[in-house]
Specification:
Elements lengths: L1 H33 L4 H5 L1 H5 L4 H13 L1 H22 L4 E4 L2 E7 L4 E2 L2 E2 L3 E16 L4 H67 L5 H35 L30 H4 L3 H22 L4 E12 L11 E10 L7 H67 L5 H35 L5
Helix pairs in contact: 1-5, 4-6, 5-6, 6-7, 6-9, 6-11, 9-10, 10-11
Length: 461
């Protein structure tokens, strides 16, 4: 009979553990599958390959692995994953194992009723195995875990947002550096032209061919050009420092960062005029809003279930004897099983208020989801409009440069024939360089617009 009791207790504990272990293994498998490294997918290498700039692509990949903000976001994902696993662990029985030794001495001055006892010393050896389990009939613990898993999804979408934002910032800094490289080069050419103009104007003044006011204006133009160069170099230094920090480098070495030329970059001419609504669904903020709605829905159900009582089961199996040699004997075994039912009858309206709070939070998430969708379409349309008009502006600047170049050929031909002075040709050359600066800036604007579209569609088009 005793062996049958022991066997029955073992079977009950075994079934309880095996059922929950199977569930735990499946849940951990799903959790692990949802937490694969998706950085490459988030970045979308195919998009960056369209620029045909290996240096840019190198910086993009480097930033995803070296940027400290991304590392923080990734660690936050790992932290939340462990929180989910901790919650998952609370759904299973808690097994405890311990040993206890006690030696008690009783004096001869004690009695049991009218019977006196002699002094004696007694040893006690205990080897208990304890099991405690909260019977989740209402699935409250399960819902808590599911809620945390949705929170994990939210954190992962935050990580995706951080990666997309980072790659866009890296590319924007890189494009601005290339733009300023070219702007500085052209500005130095303008300074050289204005130096020649100033010298020729001053020489003409010395011969009485030019009024003093022309010399003053030429000197002022030269000073303004030199001041403009300082501003460009300051901006270049700032963007280089930004690029260094975004890629995990020290800003002390920013001036040595390698880069190509903005002239070698191709504009994306295959971008669509319209974007389908399916593309917007890839945006992490929309996916995050959806996960938040699902989480708050679970929290509402969980708040409803708080009215149900908690059921706790406990069991102990082990050995207890007054001699160490008798501990492993079957006659020394001890076993107990029990349960506890506990619930709140009156809480002053706390549970009802908590349920309403969760419902209001759910409605807030619904409103936030609608707002996020509207904002996403606005950002996509804004990006497409900016691309359209900036491309038109850039094409117009290219046409102006071509026209001005043809005009410069005519001016040079007149100079060769002695129809105009060399000073006149310098002014026309400077005008052409100024147009080139405008065109480089409009090209940079088009490149930045593509980054806005990249972000607006969640990194995928």
């Amino acid at each position: 009979m005793k062996k049958q009791k022991i066997l029955a207790l073992y079977i009950a504990i075994g079934l309880l553990l095996s059922t929950n272990c199977i569930f735990a293994a499946e849940s951990n498998k799903q959790l692990k599958g949802n937490l694969t490294d998706n950085k490459a997918e988030y970045i979308n290498n195919d998009w960056w390959s369209k620029f045909k700039d290996p240096v840019l692509k190198e910086y993009i990949l480097k930033s995803a692995n070296a940027n400290h903000d991304i590392k923080i976001a990734s660690l936050k994902v790992l932290e939340t994953r462990e929180i989910v696993r901790e919650s998952l662990g609370k759904e299973f029985p808690l097994l405890g194992f311990g040993t206890n030794f006690a030696r008690n001495k009783t004096s001869a001055n004690t009695s049991m009723g009218s019977m006196s006892l002699d002094a004696y010393t007694q040893n006690s050896y205990k080897l208990p195995l304890e099991v405690n389990y909260e019977l989740d009939l209402w699935h409250k613990n399960r819902d808590k875990t599911l809620s945390l898993k949705k929170e994990l999804e939210v954190i992962k979408y935050d990580e995706k947002t951080s990666i997309i934002s980072l790659t866009s910032s890296v590319a924007a800094s890189y494009f601005n550096v290339l733009n300023l490289d070219k702007q500085i080069q052209l500005q130095k050419e303008i300074i050289n032209f204005r130096k020649d103009i100033y010298n020729l104007t001053k020489e003409n003044y010395n011969y009485g061919l030019t009024p003093a006011n022309d010399v003053v204006l030429a000197d002022k133009s030269l000073t303004e050009a030199q001041s403009g160069l300082f501003d460009l170099e300051k901006q270049q230094s700032i963007f280089l420092n930004q690029l260094a920090v975004l890629t995990g480098e020290s800003s002390d070495n920013s001036t040595s960062l390698k880069r190509s030329s903005i002239d070698s970059l191709d504009l994306m001419n295959d971008l669509p005029q319209n974007v389908k609504s399916e593309a917007v669904k890839n945006r992490p903020d929309i996916l995050k809003a959806e996960a938040q709605i699902q989480k708050t829905r679970i929290d509402v159900n969980l708040a409803r279930k708080e009215i149900f009582p908690d059921i706790n089961l406990s069991g102990v199996f082990g050995f207890n004897a007054n001699s160490l040699s008798k501990v492993p004997a079957w006659d020394s075994y001890i076993a107990s099983m029990g349960g506890n039912l506990a619930g709140v009858i009156f809480s002053g309206g706390q549970r009802k208020a908590r349920l309403k709070i969760k419902k209001y939070q759910y409605e807030q998430m619904l409103e936030n989801y609608q707002k996020t969708i509207l904002q996403s379409f606005q950002e996509v349309n804004d990006s497409l409009a900016a691309l359209k008009f900036d491309n038109q502006k850039n094409n117009s600047n290219i046409a102006r440069i071509k026209s001005e170049g043809e005009n410069l050929d005519t001016i040079i031909n007149k100079y060769d024939k002695g129809a105009i002075s060399y000073l006149d040709t310098l002014q026309y050359r400077e005008r052409l360089i100024t147009l080139e600066k405008e065109q480089i800036q409009s090209k940079t604007d088009c490149l930045i617009d593509t980054l806005s579209l990249y972000k607006a569609v969640g990194g995928k088009l």
